[in-house]
Every structure is written in structure tokens, then in C-alpha cells.
Amino acid sequence: MKKRLGDYIKEYSVRNKENQDIPVYSVTNTEGFCQDYFGKEVASKDKSTYKIVPQGYFAYNPSRINVGSVDWQRTQERVIVSPLYNVFSVSDKLDQQYLYYYLKSDFALQRIKAVATGSVRDNLKLKMLYEFPINIPELSSQKNIVELLDKIKKIEGLKKAELDYFDTLVKARFVEMFEKESDQWHHKKLVECCDNKNDIKCGPFGSQLHVEDYQNIGVPVYGIPEVNSGFKSNPKLYISQQKAEELSAYSLIDGDVAVSRKGNVGQAALFYDSLKNGIIHSDVLRVRLNKQIMDPFFLIGELHFSQSIRNQVKQASNGAIMPGINVTKLKQIVVDIPPLAIQKEFSGFIQQVEKSKVAIQKSLDETQILFQSLMQKYFG
């Protein structure tokens, strides 16, 4: 039987009236309690109205809890947070970490979004939180549940660290193989590494592809999110087969390098044959290389890790209201051309790393599915 959460938590509204030098913290949805982002700016302020959060107490920003920005304070004897925050204590019959997981569960987040009010942003008052229903088993059972969920989160963290390690390894390998001897390589403009000047192309603009052309299914339009994920995320935009044929000049084929031209400018990803045929979005540039001159994986390495290339991309992106690079400027970027055999050695290394990452990602996905199923079981 579910209990009323308000019977187990109580508001704590003690201010830092004497303006003591207590560490200022924020609560984020990813880091939980962390040193306040604004640093020196906050340090110079009068903090007498800030709320004190003793160790073991919870705090949340009423307009950010809807995205999971809630945590209990476990780092210091006491910290202070913005006056906007709600702070509350927890009954000794309710384990803090158990409540933390509950507040992070899909059930709680959906309920927060359903009951929160506010004209601009959802705003969850503490009295609303009091009315939330929660399963509260015996304290020993709560601790067993927490122990299991903590273990799974630790495994998840280790797998994410492995993926980060492989990314670092790729950069280190690139620097080792190419950066120290870059003066010895041949150099070409990027367009000279293609068979045709139109092999470097920007996606279709509004005159060719209108908003009304987009649909929920069909031929994918690959944009910046897909490039940033290395084509691991599902496309959000689609067009009809007929429209795709009209725009076939903007197609992606196996071995093409897609480059983000806005936002994270220069982020690149390889398009491969197991992906669904599609076209590039107007925010994406396509580079179709002559593979007897440059290996696609090597170009991606240059765009990501070569300081010289990154500086050229940055310089070419300046001058606009929103930083971005166009086709003409990308074509003129000067790239290193090491012997093809060395490029292919790097390419082989990348492909082995990618195989390892795929296995780790699969294991990570399974771990996250297990975690979510347990969260549903305990808090759904």
C-alpha cells in the first residue's frame, strides 16, 4: 500500500541570516549537489537570504525538478543554496537514497509534470510533493533496494568510463602517428582530395526542401544530432521517396563523411552501408573522398584532433551571427596527406576500437534496461 510522502518529509527553511561563509551549492539533474556554477559572482553577493541545507537533507529548484534536478546533501556538514530552492528533511523511516531514486523515477517525473504549475516554467511547490504516493517498505528492504540500484549505477558508470577511455585512446593514437611529423607530409586543399568539386556539398536549403515536405516516415534526412552521435541516433526528419529522388544530389553513400556546419562545427561521422539511405540536412556538409588520396577515418581524425585543421575550421566559422562553415570555406581547408598505408593503419585501429565500443555500448544498454525495469518495479 502506498503512503503519502508528506508524512515522511518536512520543510526546512533556515536562512543564512548571519551571512556566514558557507559553501554555495546548486543542484543539477546530472551532478546533483555541486559547487555553484557562478563562482566569484556568488561569492561577492549578500547570502543572508540563502537557505541552509544540512547533511542528509534534500533540496530542489521548483522550476527544475521536472527534469530531475533534485538530490540529498551528502558532502559537507552544511551548505547553502539559492533562496528559490525548497529544502526538506526526511523521516528516519525513509532512506534518503531510496527517496532519491523514487524522485528520479519515471513515475515521479511524470507526476511532477502533471501537477506542477507555472505560466513560464513548471513549478513544483513543496505542498504538491507532500501529496505524492510512494511505496515505503521496511527500512531494511529499502536499503537492500538501494544497494542493488547503487551497484547497477556503478556498473553503468564503469561502462561509460570505458567508452570515454576509448575516445581518449583514439586521440592519443592520432597524435602519436601524425601530429609530431605533420611537417613531413604532403598537403592539399580538401577539395583536391575529391574526384569532383561537387563531392563536397551542403544539404538542400528552403527553396528546395520546404517544411511541408517533412513527414514522420520515409527517407531519412540526416542532421546534426545524427552526425554528433556518429549515426547511432535515429533520424527525426523524413521525406517521401519521390522527394528524395529529386534531391539525390544530396544523398549519403557508404564511405561519405558528414560534417556539422553549425553548432558543434567540424564534428564529423562516417556514413556506412548498413544505415538507411538518406540525404543530408542543410546544417550538414557531405565530403565524398577519393579514397586513393585520403581515407575517410583519417579525415575524421584530422577534423577532430588536428590542431591545425581545427584552427582553420574555427577561423572559417567566424564572422557570422551563429558560428558556421560553408561549402566554399570547407573546400579550401588545407589538410595533411600522409602516405595512404599509414592512413589505413590508423583506419584499422579506429575500426577495432569501434568494434570494442559496440560491445561495451550493447552491455551498457542492457545495464540501463535492467536499471529502468527495476525502477519501474520498485517505484512504478
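That was protein one. Protein two is written in the same sequence-then-structure order:
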Amino acid sequence: MYIVLRRQATDAIVVALAFYNYHLTTANASMLYIFDLIVDERERNRGLGTRLFQTLIQEGKRAGALSIVLQCDLTNTAAQRFFFRQGMIITSFGFSVDHLKPLPSSPDIQIIDITDLPKEENEDWLRRAQVVHRQFQPRLPTDPQ
């Protein structure tokens, strides 16, 4: 998390903050995901958001992230304008659900979390999953040379 401070005579106040984390994509690429980038309403339009965003870009580069990703509420047009000014583009639609209602299940379908399985069993399931994983990879953009 980054915070932006404004120094005062005897104190410092927080005027902006950014929560972020790194994620590994299914294509095994590192991305920096920004959960929140917030500037105090009284401090907006002074370049603080831009400086904080540029700091996040430098942080991502330093850590080897290939991309920066975030979501913005559809109704937050001021934030959308800000992110467009920073050079961000819309690359996907975000989806959410407000109520989590279980769907009917089928006895022949089982969903398992392989994360905590013994190493050999985990690797066996990963090998079996390669066929499905390869179906995703042809749709990935290629790096310009």
C-alpha cells in the first residue's frame, strides 16, 4: 500500500492512498492489480493521483509485472476520465453478483482444490489440465517485437 502525505508545520496528513497486489495470470505472467486508488476530495486536481499512479507503474516495472489492471465502477465517470488520461484502455468487462445462491449440482461433477494436495497428486492434475489450459493460450496477445 502506498500513502501520499501532505506535510504540515507539525504533522503530516494522508491525502491519497493506493492498495495493490501482484497476481500471476493463467498465462504465467505477473500483473499488478490496483484494488483502490483514492485521493481525498479536497486534494483532487493537484496532480496527486497522477503522481501516485506513476509510482504504481514504476513499482510494477521494478517487480517485473507485464501489465497493470484495475476495475472502476460504471458510475464513477470522474475516475474513468482519470484512468483514460493515464493511458489506460478498456480490455475486458467486469462481472459481479450481489447474492450468492447455490446452483443445482450434478452427481457426476466434482470440483476440487488441488492447491493443498500432495505434490505428486497436484502435478498429475496439472498435467491433466494442460489440454484445457492450452485452449486459452491461443487467444493471448503476442508481444510486439
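The first helix runs from residue 48 to 63. Keep this in mind for the problem set.
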